Structure formats: C-alpha cells, structure tokens
Amino acid sequence: MNISYNWLKNYIQTDKTPDELSLILTNIGLEVELLDKVQSIPGGLDGLLVGEVITCEQHPNADKLRVTTVNVGAEELLHIVCGAPNVRTGLKVIVAPVGATCHPNQGEPFKITKSKIRGEVSEGMLCGEDEIGLGSSHAGIVELKEDAAVGSLVKDYFQIQDDFVYEIGLTPNRADAASHLGVARDLAAYLRTNYTLSDVSAFKASEAQGTAVVVDAAEAAPRYSGINITGITVQDSPDWLKEKLNAIGIRPINNVVDVTNYILHDLGQPLHAFDADKIAGNKVVVRYAKEGEPFVTLDGVARTLAAEDLVIADGEKPMCIAGVFGGQTSGVTESTTAIFLESAYFNAVTVRKTSKRHALKTDASFRFERGTDPNITVYALQKAALLIQEVAGGQVSSTLTDIYPAPVQPFEFTVNYGNVQRLIGQAIPAEEIRAIIVALGIEIVKEDAEELLVQVAPYKVDVTREVDVIEEVLRIYGYNNIELKSQIKASLNTAEKPDKELLLNQVADLLIGNGYREILNNSLTKLAFVNDENTAVRLLNPLSSDLDTMRQNLLFSALTSVSYNQKRKSPNAKYFEYGKTYFKTEEGYKEKQNLGLTIAGAQAEAQWNVADTKVNFYNLKAAVDTIVKRLNIQGLQTAEGDARYFDYGLSYMKGQQALVTFGAVSTANLKKADVDGAVFYAEFDWDLVVKAIRKNVIKFQEVAKFPAVNRDLALLVDESVAFEQLKTIALKSERKLLKDVAIFDVYKGDKLPEGKKSYALSFVIQDDEKTLNDKQIEAIIKKLIINFEKETGATVR
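Request: output the structure for the sequence above.
Response:
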C-alpha cells in the first residue's frame, strides 16, 4: 500500500520530516518497506532561476542566434547565446545557469556548462518547455509573467512540490489503515494531535427522484448509498488530481473514474460510477446472481456467475460484481453525461469468496474483503460528488439514497487497567492508558478507577475484545518503550528428543564449515518438476503456470538456483537447503522435511596454483558420509540411486526406506532446468534422519594406546560385486579387531578374465588392549579371504 506524505498533510499538521514519519509509522505497526521521493516533473526544476533579458543582440556569426545578457539576481549579468525566435529585451524567462541539470522530455538529462557558441561565450541556457519537462512545446523559450521575481526559484514560481511515498507492508488485520485517512488517524494518535476531515457542507442534494434502488440481499449489502449527477463532461483530470494518483502508482483514466480512485485511497471507501443512461429501467437492484448467469467484466473477460455472487444489476442484467469489478457495458466513457454514483458497505465474507472464486483481485476487493467502515459511505459520497462537480462540472440531480435497515453496532466491552499492565509487562500509568485509548478514537462510555467501558467504532474490524485494545495501547505507547529486565522468568518444558532445531543448526554449521552456502527456494514449482502427478498438490488459483504445484523434491529448486547463477557467470555451486515437500495421499495431504545438497562447477575458485578440477560424485559422497558419521547413524545398507533423477548414484537405506539418495543428476533433468554441465545432488529424508538418531547415545572411549596395523589385499571379483558388499562381509567376519575397510584401487582391463574386475582393499586392524602379533594378523586376513571366496567367489590376485 502506497501513502503520500503530502496527502497525509491534508489531514494532520506536523513538522516531522518524511524520514521521521517513516520511523514513527514502522514503530506503530505500519511497517514502511520503502520511502521513495516522487517528483511531478522530472528533476523538479531544481537549480533553474527566473531571469530577465536585459539586452538582446544579433549574433555576429550566425543569422538565427541572439547574444543576450540576462539578470538572475547575481552581481553580474549572464552572457547567454539563444536561438529561440521569441527571445527579446525585457522578457522574463527560465534560466538554467552553469551547473544546473535539465531533464528534457526526450533523451537523457544534461548538465549546463560554460561554452562558446560560434565564438561567443554562453553562461547558461534560456529554457523551452520541452527542454525541462514542463510541457511539450518546442516553439520557443517559456515566457513568464511580468511580475515574476528575478532570481527566484522556478520551482517556487510554478509551485512545484516534491512528494515522498511510503510503501507500507499492511498486515491483513489492519483494514482500518488501508487509506490516507486511516494512516493519519494512527499518526494523530501517536503525535497526540487532531486530524481534520474535509468540509462537505457545500454538498446539496436535489429533491428530485433519481435512480430507484432495491436491495434484495440485505445480509450481503447491509448499507447501500447512491446519488445521481448530471451534466458532467468526461475528460482528462486536472494536473493536481493526476499528480496525486501518479504519486501512489495509480494510472489516471478520466476525471470521474479518477475521483472514485482518489476517494478509495483517501478514505478507504470504494465507489463505483455507472453511466446513468445505460441503467435499464432507471433501476438499480442489489441481488445475488443467478446460477450460471453470464457477465462480461471491464477487462473484456466473459465470466459465469455463481448463485453466491452479489451483483449490482439494473432492470435487466448485472452491471457490476459487487465490491469486486465493474462490467464492460455500464462504465463511464467519454460520451457519458450523467452518472449514478454508488457508495456501499458489503459483507466482507461475500466479497472475499467471490473475489477468490473468479480470481479477481482489485483495490476495491482488497478493502471490502477485509472490512470497510459502514459509517463513512454517505460522507464519501458527498466528498466525491463535490470533487466530480469541481473537475467534471454538472450538478447533483437527485435525493441521496441511503438504505441502512440494520445499522452495524460498535463493539462494546470493558478494559481493565490491571490487565493492560499485566499483558504488556510494564506499569503504565492509568492516565496514559486512558489518553491513548481516547487518542485512538475509542469512546469511553463509563469508567472507574479500575476499568473502562468502551465502544469501538466498526471500522476497527480487529478490535473486538479487551486484548485487542491492549494491543492498540501497546502499539501507540511503543514497543521500544518496554524495558528489558535483567531477569526474565520462563517456564521450562521438557524438550522433544532430539532437539530438531539444534540438529538442523549443527548440520548447517558442519556444511558451512565445508564451504557450502544455504539457499532458500519457493515451495511452489511447476507440474513438470514433480515425482508423480497423481500425488501432486495442485493450486486452484496459481499465480502462473511455473508456480502451480507444491514441490515433491528439492532437486529442481536447487537446479533452478544453479541455472540462475550460471547465467550470471557464477558456475561454481556448493549449496544446501532445508525445505518441505508435499504430497496428496488417500488419507489426505502430507508434508515432509528434506535436506538437499548440490555441487557443480569447479572444486575451487580459479587461482594460479590450483588446478581447474571439476567436482565429482566422490566430492558429494564425502559430504554425505560426513553428515552420516556426524549424526552417528548406524546400520545403513547401500542400494542403487533413483533412476528417475540420476544417471548413476547410491541410496543409503535404513531398513526399507531411503535415508539419503545421491548421484549425478541425469541429462534429461538438467535439460528441464536449463543447466549446463554436470551437477551432483543428494537429498536426505530429514524426518527419517530425526527418527534414526532418536535413540542415539553419546559414548566416549580413550584413545587407543596400541598401534594399528594396515594390511592390503587385491581381490579378483565379478563385475556385479560392489565394494560395500565386501566391506559388509569383512566387518561381519571380524567384529572386534577390524576397525576400517577402504578401497584404494579398481582395475578393469585386458589382462583380466571377461566379466571380472580387481579391487585393492586396505584393512585397519587394532586391539585396544595389547599389541597385535603377526600370527593374529594373518589369522584375521585368512578368515577374510575365506569369507570373500565363500560369499562372492572372489580370488586373491
């Protein structure tokens, strides 16, 4: 939501700077995400001066140029060469002196420098409209009025004001602040000053009957107000109105529509103007749509209405989806001369459901679906009518219709001073609490020394209980004014074992220490990136086709990050990401926590003394093994990786479930994500990781005092035999003394029998209680050879 600083000053008088107000707004709950300077004219005419041409002579070397001397209020006259046909002695002009920057309508801004033109010195420029962004004329220089003060600023002469726009991240509960009036109310409460509403006493309704109004759906439209205005001329809005709208990012359309948009952002009350001549039967009916009733909205889209949709219809057809979007045939055009102006209070739930059903989000629906002020409809109508008469002419030609059979009542409840102080956690004087409540516009009906009976106006849709008022008091009192005590008392609960957050951080620290960077990607992806379309969680109203499905893995999120960085000349990747994955099952929806690791590009950044070595499968496996070892996960079995994702890879199985799957991402998947080169990826089932280490117990033992012995063994095995199989056999054969098994060479070649390969294995043997002798070592090796031969058919080379 955008809020204009100058616009706010229509409501409150303050000497606070835009930056100071920005800090105040954030502190009272209206977080300012961006403060931007806005200029109605590019450059704001900064540095330009009002001057008077004292002399004007023919240039000695050019027929179409004049040499002038110009008074800009300085001690010396400026010598300026000018080619404008209308330059003459005594003319008041706009002067860009040396050092000033001009912002033309076309092209880039340029800075004025001292120069020579055909041999004559020129110390500035006499400006035309198009050369400074003031207009489009190129006929000559701007001629100012004779009373223009020489040496004064041109921006003051044209009353050019810079504006500052706050981009506020409005939370959904703050519907009351979705306007300049709403923000001004909060500022007034904080600054303990008054805000002033525009005077609408000049509004005069006619006694004539206008468009008849019938409300058939009072529960969906509790209040409906309207009036007829005739004799208007639809055209461009005046500059002041365009500037107001442009400043907050609203595109001007025409004077009537611009007034309705102005009121919406001014008061938070959406209005709608219908072309009165297009209202069949001169009758407006507020009703529910008929099931399947066709309707073409203002954007030209044909829509099918549901029976739950509230519409504004005439005697024959719908003209508008109430509170959401207007119709194509009933809107204001250049030929419109009479309008019916609507100002209503619609049920928030009805508007929200209709907006979602038709995937229509507008400024009006944004406010209606959160809750507007039922008591401002008539005031907004009167203010809008006066503005329309000002910018479009015409006159109010009917009585003011206001159908409000069951007025919305204010929220009434008690506020206890003790509860305020208890929940805030600080002793705030009762008179301060009372003053804040009054400043917030909350009426005190009855009071005593302990509590207040208050009435809260309906526009504060989220202030319906005592605790809500306490939140309002704290907001204005200031979160920063709550003291942090030296001691904080808290109840201690038995934490779940293992501590999931601690576990996440421990592994994250481990990965960061090994050069990985954490990434965070969107949980939304496209259908092409899911594992199984039958279990995919699809969005009903996706933002785009690329964000229409909840992800089922972290792989394609990681590949998207790799692709993004590759295109920006950053090909080396070492990423990790914690994230959720989502599935649809017969029992309902399911989500899982995963950890993804991604490596691509070179192992290290290019340096003169470092070889350009690409990452490989074993770099990734080392990271996976490091995590498994750090978490002390035992009893894992090895299986092949998931062929849907990898050209080759492994899975570490915990029983029948894959704890982690990793490998070289397949070419097909790399192509899907538009990635160049090899990428290696691992994905942990983090929920299974947590379950696997739940019963882990930390054990300590002394460092062995006796030396370890290394023995190597070369085995000839079938090509189908994996190292992990041999390692399992070895560790099972000698459980006490065999500490580790590693592979240091694999050979396949012409000198070996067909279908065979050679493994060179290294064994670490150690006794924690004594030094091993050769006889014991040879016995262990012999036992290993026998079991290798028995279970795999291996032979010693």
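The CA atoms of residues 67 and 737 lie 104 Å apart.
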